[in-house]
């Protein structure tokens, strides 16, 4: 069975929660490295450092396309990128990726060089391992969860977990009430 770990938005989230564990290997011990494990992060340098320090043995490190596009658009814009950046990302086959990529390269070689220099992790489906059985190109699930607990993120870990439990309980009660109305 494959697993996907989508890391929350904060670039130092893992090291903030487990500062003493990241360096000594206990974070890796807690999560493990099962075959097909995928870590999907934003483009933050802090989280990149933690992932590369903790997971040194073959974990597939993907980059959220939404974050890549946001960073990319700070420097480059144009019709070629609007038409071809997302399709290149979503291409399952190398030749389809190359078709979109080459059109962007023809429009602006500097832009594609910038992507290679600044976004070194996997961001296109044709490079994803088949072991993970997950083809998400964004980390929207974690972004949604992160937004859901944004006011609680500063709590100590145990208190944070208790608060998440209370929020989920409240959601379940609300869903039960809505189902009874229907």
Could you write a compact summary of the structure shown?
This protein is mainly α.
Could you please describe the fold and organization of this structure?
This is Transposase. The chain is mainly α and 182 residues long. It folds into two domains: 145 residues, no CATH class; 34 residues. Helices cover 58% and strands 6% of the residues. It is built from ten helices and three strands. The chain is globular and about 55 Å long.
Task: Based on the model shown, name its key terms.
58% helix, 3-stranded parallel β-sheet, mainly alpha, 182 residues
Radius of gyration: 19 Å
Described by the principal axes of the CA atoms, the overall outline is globular
> What amount of the residues lies in strands?
5-15%
The rounded distance between the terminal residues' Cα atoms is 37 Å
Query: Helix fraction?
Result: 55-70%
Tally the beta strands. 3
N-to-C SSE series? Answer: EHHHEHEHHHHHH
Average pLDDT works out at 79
Class from secondary-structure proportions? mainly alpha
The biggest beta sheet is recorded as: 3 strands, parallel
Count structural domains.
Answer: 2
**Count of discrete alpha- or pi-helical segments spanning 4 or more residues:** 10
Organism: Miscanthus lutarioriparius
Protein name: Transposase
């Amino acid at each position: 069975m494959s697993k996907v770990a989508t890391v929350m938005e904060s670039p130092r989230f893992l090291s903030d929660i487990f500062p003493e564990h990241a360096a000594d290997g206990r974070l890796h011990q807690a999560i493990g490295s099962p075959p097909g494990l995928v870590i999907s992060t934003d483009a933050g340098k802090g989280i990149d450092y933690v992932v590369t320090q903790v997971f040194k043995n073959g974990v597939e490190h993907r980059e959220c396309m939404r974050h890549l596009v946001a960073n990319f658009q700070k420097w480059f814009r144009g019709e070629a990128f609007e038409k071809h950046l997302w399709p290149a990302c979503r291409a399952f086959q190398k030749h389809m990726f190359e078709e979109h990529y080459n059109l962007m390269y023809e429009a602006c070689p500097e832009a594609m060089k910038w992507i290679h220099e600044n976004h070194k992790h996997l961001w296109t489906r044709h490079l994803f391992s088949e072991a993970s059985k997950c083809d998400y190109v964004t980390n929207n699930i974690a972004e949604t969860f992160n937004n859901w607990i944004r006011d609680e993120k500063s709590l100590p870990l145990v208190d944070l977990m208790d608060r998440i439990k209370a929020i989920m309980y409240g959601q379940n009660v609300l869903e039960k009430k809505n189902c009874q109305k229907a």
